[in-house]
Amino acid sequence: MYLTSVPDHMEPGFDEALYFSKFQKHNIIINAESNGSHCDDHAGCLSIKTILSGEEWYGIDRHSLVIRPGQFLVLNDDQRYSCRTSRGEKVRGLSVFFKKEFASAVFSDMLNSEGALLDNSSYNNSTIPEFFQTLNNISPDLQAQLSRLATTIESRGYDATMVDEHLVFLLRHLIGVYKSDVVRGAGIRAVKATTRIEIYKRLCIARDILHSSYTEHLDLSKISSLACLSMPQLIRQFKAAFHCTPYQYLIRIRLRHAAQLLQDTDKPVQEITWICGFENTSAFCRAFKSVYGIQPVLFRKK
């Protein structure tokens, strides 16, 4: 199914059970613009969420994160979550929801040997990996896949066979993302594998806080508290997983957004300074030059 609008869950007469029952029976793609939409509580299916313009907030397991252009979020089967966009701001989103049986069949194909698949072509172990529900950057390959999918549907119309072929390769990409997260988690310093996974999940919460609230004043005690880690443990394990400290990661996020604003807008450097969370223009210019090798004004001219 292909939907180009999202319902208002607060509209009188909205049948939530009927609407979401479709997601158990079909692969569904939603390419829609919304304005002030929100869903307070929902248990969804395996899905990938992206934002083309604007931003959308999600609440997952008592923490919040925001998806912006260039990022995506994977939600697992039966994960309860809330989502909202700000009223008065038009937000364009592209989301893909995978029917459980479909996703399971694709993952079985990827995770079993060719011999096992030949012995039983209908083999399906019904195993779906538990994805780390954290913000990820959209790679050029994933961007190309999503663009081709949306463009093909818009130009040729919705054809289930054609769409399912696209979705097989999209799920294969997600497995690659999952394996990358597993490798990062393996860098966590802990004896038990279950402990490493739990610490990595909490580090992902800390990283999502940095992405979602980079414009705010963030101190380590607040971040560690929200991620349920001690401050020394947060710093030590964050560096083991992501090869930099939380503060260094935050500065990178701020500078990346600053570079985007310098490139795409005519906002003054001073305004970009406070938009991106820097205390003063001098500190911003020093940090920018240390990473990009050039002052912000010259970067804009080039």
The CATH C-level name of the largest domain is: Mainly Beta
**Order of SSEs, N→C?**
EHEEEEEEEEHHEHHHHHHHHH
Estimated radius of gyration: 21 Å
Number of strands: 10
Helix content: 40-55%
The fraction of residues assigned to DSSP E strands is 15-25%
Number of domains: 3
What is the chains' assembly state?
A: single chain
CATH topology of the largest domain: Jelly Rolls
Q: State the low-pLDDT regions, or none.
A: none
- Walk across the major sheet and give the strand order: 1-2-9-4-7-10
What does this structure look like?
The structure is a single chain. By secondary structure, this protein is an alpha+beta fold. It has three domains: 2-184, Jelly Rolls (Sandwich); 187-243; 254-301, Arc Repressor Mutant, subunit A, CATH 1.10.10. The protein is 50% helix and 18% strand. The mean pLDDT is 87.
Put the structure in a nutshell.
The protein has 12 helices and 10 strands. With 302 residues, the protein is of the alpha+beta class.
Question: Which terms summarize this structure?
Answer:
Arc Repressor Mutant, subunit A, 302 residues, four-stranded antiparallel beta sheet, 10 strands, alpha+beta, Jelly Rolls, six-stranded mixed beta sheet, globular
How does the SSE layout of this entry go?
Elements: E1 2-3, H1 16-21, E2 28-35, E3 38-43, E4 47-53, E5 56-60, E6 63-67, E7 71-75, E8 80-84, E9 90-97, H2 100-111, H3 114-119, E10 136-137, H4 140-156, H5 160-186, H6 193-212, H7 220-226, H8 231-242, H9 246-264, H10 269-275, H11 281-292, H12 296-301
Helix pairs in contact: 2-5, 4-5, 5-6, 6-8, 6-9
